[in-house]
Request: fold
Amino acid sequence: MSCPKCGSTASDGRAFCQLCGSPQPTSVPKIAPPPPPLPPPPPPDPIKAPTVVTSNSTVSTGKRLLVFGCGLGAVVLLIVFLTHLSSSRKSSVNAVSTSGSAVPSTSAVIANATRQASPAAIPEVSSEQPSEGNVQDDVTNVLHTWAKSIATNDPATVASYYAPNVAIYYGKTSVDNAFVLADKEAFLRHGNEITRLDLGQISFVNESPTAATVRFDMDVTWEKSGNITHKILFFQVNLQNLNEEWKITAEQNYKPSVSVTRQ
Reply:
């Protein structure tokens, strides 16, 4: 530092010059400039994700492992469910044997609730067929009422005992009920009138719960134009149970092996 008066070099830090004694300006210590800021460190290189190279065989293996894992999980769940179900059933059996009273199962409870919620049950219709003894009684009663209707000379009532289709009717085959009615009306239209009719013993040739074949004789007396005729006629009649009613499905004469005489 130089003295401003004499120009001599004065020692730094002195208040007066050492040669001329002039006061020296207060020295201001030089402050070193701050060092320049360090440059920021370079950013780190980005970490590249590793490239995964897959092949078809690797994907297929992964799929198989996934399917196998799902199947194995399903099997494990099924085993757990069956084990739980078996334990529940064993508990129910133990409860029954211990308490002595049956514990209703889930299906029984559901069925009971369904019956309670459903409307009144319709009574079942029995499919039991009548016995052969009843068949003989029923057929015999029908034939007796049929014979009485013949004695009343009422063709419509007589025809009501025949089926809608008659297989055999005195030599004719496959006739309907209207044909039978017309034949009965023709008998009366020709002036015939039955005055007496007795039905003889009825014998069953064969029978079943729905069909029967019978033979019998009929002692008949009728009058025509004042002339009286008396005959014993022999019949074979087939009947069938149609809608719970016995109807004649075939009627023809037959010749008995033993003659019958009536007084």
Summary: The mean pLDDT is 77. The beta strands are 165-169, 172-176, 192-199, 203-207, 211-224, 227-242, 245-253. DSSP finds five helices and seven strands in the chain.
